[in-house]
Design brief:
Keywords: Membrane, Transmembrane, Transmembrane helix
Strand order of the largest sheet: 1-4-5-6
Structural class: alpha+beta
Radius of gyration: 32 Å
Order of helices and strands: HHEEHEEEE
Helix content: 25-40%
Strand content: 15-25%
Distance between the termini: 68 Å
Number of helices: 3
Number of domains: 2
Shape: elongated
Oligomer: single chain
Length: 161
């Protein structure tokens, strides 16, 4: 059998089933209208109950946004990771969030050890940048401790806590 013949048989079977269902409904409406309209009312009532039920009135919790201030000291912490060792990327330009491939830097011999900063490193906020309608989405920070003391770069505001 070809696909067309199979498709035609399926369509014919569906039409026959739909026709039988419609004839059953109309005969039920004529013979016993109370059962017919009761069944329709039951289906409607079931749909209303399903639409009205469910859901929770509780508010979904998430990371709370802090009111960051320039010149204040904070700590870098990424709320989107479970690993404490996961570094935070310092960017030269705000909004340059993308997949980071360090292989080009290694090949060119210009590995920047201060581009990836460990979580928990104290920083001071230098500047803010808005992005996509969100006020202060990016924060320019200056590292205050460790080997990279004095280096600066842009991070997401949620990474500063």
């Amino acid at each position: 059998m070809s696909n067309e013949e199979n498709a035609k048989k399926t369509v014919d079977a569906a039409k026959e089933t739909a026709g039988q269902l419609i004839s059953l409904m109309t005969s039920l409406k004529e013979k016993n209208p109370k059962v017919f309209f009761g069944a329709i009312g039951g289906v409607v009532l079931l749909l209303i109950v399903m639409m009205m039920s469910g859901g929770d009135s509780g508010v979904v919790s998430g990371p709370s946004a802090k009111n960051l201030a320039a010149g204040q000291r904070y700590v870098l912490k990424n709320p989107n990771t479970y690993e404490i060792e996961s570094p935070i990327q310092l960017l030269a330009v705000p909004g340059a969030i993308a997949a980071f491939d360090d292989s080009e830097d290694v090949e060119k011999g210009k590995v920047e050890s201060c581009r990836r900063i460990a979580q928990g490193t104290p920083v001071t906020i230098v500047d803010f940048q808005d992005f996509a309608g969100k006020k202060n989405a990016f924060v320019k920070v200056q590292v205050e401790d460790g080997d990279c003391k004095g280096s600066s770069g842009w991070v997401l505001a949620i990474d500063v806590q």
